[in-house]
Specification:
The complex is a heterodimer of chains A (about 110) and B (about 110). In chain A, about 0% of the residues lie in helices and about 55% in strands. Chain A has about 110 residues and is mainly β. Classes of the chains: A mainly beta (about 110), B mainly beta (about 110). Chains A and B meet through strand 4, strand 5, strand 9 and strand 10 of A and strand 5 and strand 10 of B.
């Protein structure tokens, strides 16, 4: 089993739709979690950190489910500009290791 | 502030040639990283430097060496390039290892 797994998609959604991505991780000792956004042929950029209590930033909501070992990203009212690949990142506790998921591609359609 | 600066942006090499990819950050970050990104594989960690003076292997270190020259600079060297090393290389930095990373623009490297 891969350490961090994401559905690569693509997810094709109409403008204004709500879309959610999950990311599962295998190491229960994982400590910190992030979502990054990567546009085509560009570098990844931090979208948001994921906190245990869940957190929201505008139209974006991130949640952590430690019992089931997954994190999620919810995007409300999708915009054309949200089209990108969304990468989840997991840091393992006590071990200086960072693992990126393969990314989920989102295409928002007019 | 420039953030993380990588040079060169593009490079074509012949098999067996050597080259060094340069990376510098101006955010006073302690940790720096080198990744490669290939289609269908995602980002894979080659080497990282948790702090100045230390370097450690990541997931795919074979065929590469690194130098943490000072707090700002972290270089990646290919001693004898192979076609399997054709990839996009990203350098990143973070305050500490478990903190969010900031990425450079990437280097597109082709080895013929």
């Amino acid at each position: 089993r891969k350490e961090v797994e994401q559905d690569p998609g693509p997810f094709n959604v109409p403008e204004g739709a709500t879309v959610a991505f999950n990311c599962t991780y295998s190491n229960s000792a994982s400590q910190s979690f992030f979502w990054y956004r990567q546009d085509c042929r560009k570098e990844p950029k931090l979208l948001m950190s994921v906190y245990s209590s869940g957190n929201e930033d505008g139209r974006f909501t991130a949640q952590l489910n430690r019992a089931s070992q997954y994190i999620s990203l919810l995007i409300r009212d999708s915009k054309l500009s949200d089209s990108a690949t969304y990468l989840c990142v997991v840091n393992e506790k006590g071990y200086q290791k960072v693992t990126f998921g393969i990314g989920t591609k989102l295409q928002v359609i007019p | 502030n420039a953030g993380v600066t990588q040079t060169p942006k593009f490079q074509v090499l012949k098999t067996g040639q050597s080259m060094t990819l340069q990376c510098a950050q101006d955010m006073n970050h302690n940790s720096m990283y080198w990744y490669r990104q290939d289609p269908g594989m995602g980002l894979r960690l080659i080497y990282y430097s948790a702090s100045e003076g230390t370097t450690d292997k990541g997931e795919v270190p074979n065929g590469y060496n690194v130098s943490r020259l000072n707090k700002r600079e972290f270089s990646l060297r290919l001693e004898s390039a192979a076609p399997s090393q054709t990839s996009v290389y990203f350098c990143a930095s973070s305050e500490q290892v478990n903190q969010p990373q900031h990425f450079g623009d990437g280097t597109r490297l082709s080895i013929l």
